[in-house]
């Protein structure tokens, strides 16, 4: 049974987040709110938890996992970016964008795309997520909370509890999220590729993008 913590979305209770962080530190998987939708998360360096997260989500090793980062200061340890890419990331974060980047050796090979050696990275603009990341002290491995065989993420904390209570170890209930996925941009291609159009407006970044389906 999952531990459930109801927190205020704009001013989450620190004691609840500390308990949630401790559960994640001990190998737990969590369902947490972000600025786009709820996500499944676990510690980046926990192999067993990462494998369990993939099973719960129903995805294989070709599914791009995402690193939820508190800010760009953590970027250099996990992704290779040039000055142009960094300026772009700085303009787009925090916010509802996920960027596909070349992974560094600090990212375990089992977490990056098996053929491309890439990883997704994003900095969420959500107080609860930010405070939890600060307590964890490193990025969290994340994937959107979409049940296997479905296309839409779950947004109702009560629904999440009912369906995932026996699958995850902690659920942070901060109310409903925006329920719109992030915009995904692959920066390893030139020009960059728009993988998925979501709540982040690519036009704001001043990018000339090619569409993945073009």
UniProtKB/TrEMBL annotation:
Q: Which PROSITE patterns match?
A: YRDC
Record Gene3D superfamilies: DHBP synthase
InterPro entries named among the record's database cross-references: DHBP_synth_RibB-like_a/b_dom, Sua5-like_dom, SUA5_domain
- GO terms, molecular function: double-stranded RNA binding
- UniProt cross-references to Pfam families, sorted A to Z: Sua5_yciO_yrdC
List the SUPFAM superfamilies hit by this protein, alphabetically: YrdC/RibB
The organism sits in which domain of life? Bacteria
NCBIfam families named in the record? L-threonylcarbamoyladenylate synthase (TIGR00057)
Classification via PANTHER family:
DHBP SYNTHASE RIBB-LIKE ALPHA/BETA DOMAIN-CONTAINING PROTEIN, THREONYLCARBAMOYL-AMP SYNTHASE
Name the chain's protein. Answer: Translation factor Sua5
**Taxonomy of the source species:** Bacteria, Pseudomonadati, Pseudomonadota, Betaproteobacteria, Burkholderiales
């Amino acid at each position: 049974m999952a531990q459930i913590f109801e927190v205020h979305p704009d001013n989450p209770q620190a004691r609840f987040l500390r308990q949630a962080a401790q559960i994640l530190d001990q190998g737990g998987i969590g369902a947490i709110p972000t600025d786009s939708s709820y996500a499944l998360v676990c510690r980046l360096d926990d192999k067993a938890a990462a494998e369990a997260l993939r099973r719960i989500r129903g995805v294989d090793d070709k599914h791009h996992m995402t690193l939820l980062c508190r800010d760009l200061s953590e970027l250099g340890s996990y992704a290779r970016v040039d000055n142009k890419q960094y300026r772009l990331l700085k303009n787009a974060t925090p916010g509802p964008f996920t960027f596909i980047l070349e992974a560094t050796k600090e990212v375990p090979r089992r977490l990056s795309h098996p053929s491309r050696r890439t990883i997704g990275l994003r900095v969420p603009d959500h107080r609860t997520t930010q405070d939890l990341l600060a307590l964890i002290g490193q990025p969290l491995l994340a994937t959107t909370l979409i049940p296997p065989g479905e296309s839409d993420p779950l947004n109702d904390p009560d629904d999440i509890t009912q369906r995932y209570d026996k699958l995850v170890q902690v659920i942070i209930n901060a109310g409903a999220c925006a329920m719109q996925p992030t915009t995904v941009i692959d920066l390893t291609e030139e020009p960059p590729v728009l993988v998925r159009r979501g709540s982040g407006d690519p036009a704001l970044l001043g990018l000339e993008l090619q569409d993945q389906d073009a």
